[in-house]
Amino acid sequence: MTHTLVLTAAGESARMQGTGKKEYLTIAEPPTGRVSVLSSALHPFLETGLFNLIVITVPSGGQAEARSVLAEDGRIYPLIEESGCEIIFAEGGSTRQDSVRRGLESIFLRATTVKRWPTTVLVHDAARPWVTTATIRDVLACALDRGAAVPAVPATDTQKETDGLGKIVRHLDRSRVVSVQTPQGFRFTELLDAHRKASIDGHHYTDDTEIWGVYAGDVYICQGDRNNRKITFREDIS
Length: 238
Description:
This protein is of the alpha/beta class and 238 residues long. Helix content is 34%, strand content 23%. It has a single domain (3-237), classed as Spore Coat Polysaccharide Biosynthesis Protein SpsA, Chain A, CATH 3.90.550. It has seven helices and twelve strands. Strands 1, 4, 5, 6, 7, 10, 11 and 12 form an eight-stranded mixed β-sheet that branches. A hairpin with a 6-residue loop joins strand 2 and strand 3 (35-36). The longest helix is centred in the middle third of the chain and has 19 residues, at 96-114. The protein is globular and about 50 Å long.
């Protein structure tokens, strides 16, 4: 089986209050070199040894900077060589949805060239640097078994739905509400087809499970990890 990954790092980090692109910020400075958010998000996928191809989406003209950030982490390129995984970069779009679709198209183009079609694709936010190999393996196993999978954790706060103007319109049952994370895993061909349809239907989708749900079928949850949090604001980096 061939497993692939789209690692999304094309966003503008607008909510980081001028600290720079969040995926390129430093998490630690061990003897192996500068460990960035981006390299930490990539590292566990390489560590599994399960992926043949990884596409990293970056801003327009940002390939050289992304390569440089990864090269500063001394763990990354030895793992790439050891695993035999191919890393390519794709220019992201104006939205996450568009960036993921472009990443999928890059996988399709590469698969057409080498005549080796991927079984699955995982989509992961590069702003989640604390993902573990256990979560990756769980998502991959569930996606292989059921077609589409997402890691989830139970909601801890009581959940309400509002009308967008400040009034609560629905009281949700917390026992049935979960918070979903990434990586989200799918059968590759079906997800690419779903994204192509979603790109021309005039709707905006918040994540890939929503697109799959509209065009491909059901999505199933597997065990998430509360430490697999996403960096959105400056204080999240600490």
